[in-house]
Amino acid sequence: MENNKFPKGFLWGGATAANQLEGAYLTDGKGLSVADTMPGGKKKFEVLKSKEFVWTIDEATYYYPNHQGINHYHHYKEDIALFAEMGFKCYRLSIAWSRIFPKGDEQEPNQAGLEFYDQLFDECLKYNIKPVVTISHYEMPLHLVTKYGGWKNRQLVKFYEHYARVILTRYHKKVHYWMTFNEINGAFHFPALSQGLVPSNGSLDKQMIFQAFHHQFVASSLAVKIAHELDPNLKIGCMILYATTYAFDSNPKNQLAALQENQEMNYYCTDVQVRGEYPTFSKRLWRKYGVEQPQFEEGDLALLRDYPVDYIGFSYYMSTVVDKVSTTATSVSGNLLGGVANPFLKASEWGWQIDPTGLRIALNELYDRYKKPLFIVENGLGAFDQPDEHYYVADDYRIDYLRSHIETMAEAIEDGVDLIGYTPWGCIDLVSASTGEMSKRYGFIYVDLDDQGQGSFARYRKKSFYWYKNIITTNGADLK
């Protein structure tokens, strides 16, 4: 397919998260994060949803793969050089909050942590790679959960504000694009990652989840305020998990259910952060869960109104299907959420339904609703990769997945969507957030490491590495 639909300056790159690749989990003064207590393995979410889980590390029972990650902390120069070889225009990463404030409630930051990110950003800029930084990506300091109870506690707003002020002040001349919280809406289904809530400290109480959302909304607006006071040209985005939502059939009950699922998952958090106000359906949504309006402090709503985000970052891996009528539909898994099987789609090896057309729909839905620039900051295929004797992976299945999604991105741009960039998830193999496995690989770069943390940590270019390099070189014009 030949096309020249991508605008000049389009931000091609890749995406990672600190807790999934850095490792060095106690190095140079870093404190424990919530991610450090989350075990690996296919039963990871089952463990975190149990009433017995209490945010402690039990190495006698579990393995914790993110403690070493892929040791990006000591390999970042090599990794960024490989990104530069692919031609990355940007690199989406996150700062580990507990590397800057080990407990989260200190006044003075950890200088070694600050210096690490100075060096990392400088390495990116050496190759003209723009850092795109998530302020909090599923790794809040553990102390803020064990002492304060996570984001249900209003005090976390001031701790986040202080953290954001420190990193924005220090790095704003190096980092132009920021996002406040990763997949903030994912807490509807799994608040452990982003809100620090599990059954033992509040995840079963929807009132606490909605209160935690409000505190995060306030914190997000404070970050926007700080950034724009430092430099009005800085771009601060939100980041949501987006799954295009279909009704299973034309039954009006399913059509209504799909509309309401779309409102809840895709728009509730986004409306507050982008439009600067709670959506009109909020009261009905609160009633659905049997909760009261979250507690607002004086000035909260004005802050939300005055400091909305500049763009919308989002992840897109799959679509979902809603069926409230049939009792025989087959359920499927997905990125923190599931649904029923779509008979028109194939699925990945982890059961996530592959739907590139759904991405075009997502882009149109988001841009039509908000009229703000969009940035696809996660998209990719988790798969078992089988390297040959030279550690080369012929991952045509990944190329096919990415090609089909890039094609629909081009069509969405033709539809009139303002799309500014694309950073496929796990541009280098890293620890899976959902299962803690290395064997669920997304990257263009193979890392020699298995699910038990054994391997050489050596990096190898996959077939998709060279394919994506050509995509960037031609600005998406050559998708062969």
TrEMBL record:
Superkingdom, natural source: Bacteria
BP GO terms, sorted: carbohydrate catabolic process
Signal peptide positions on this chain: none
Single GO MF annotation: beta-glucosidase activity
tRNA processing listed as a keyword: no
Pfam families, A to Z: Glyco_hydro_1 (PF00232)
An example Gene Ontology CC term for this record: cytosol
Gene3D superfamilies found in the cross-reference section: Glycosidases
Catalytic residues as annotated in Swiss-Prot or TrEMBL: 378
Record InterPro entries: GH (IPR017853), GH_1_N_CS (IPR033132), Glyco_hydro_1 (IPR001360), Glyco_hydro_1_AS (IPR018120)
Keyword list, A-Z: Glycosidase, Hydrolase
PANTHER family linked to this entry: 6-PHOSPHO-BETA-GLUCOSIDASE ASCB-RELATED (PTHR10353:SF122), GLYCOSYL HYDROLASE (PTHR10353)
Stated family: Belongs to the glycosyl hydrolase 1 family.
The protein's name in its UniProt record: 6-phospho-beta-glucosidase
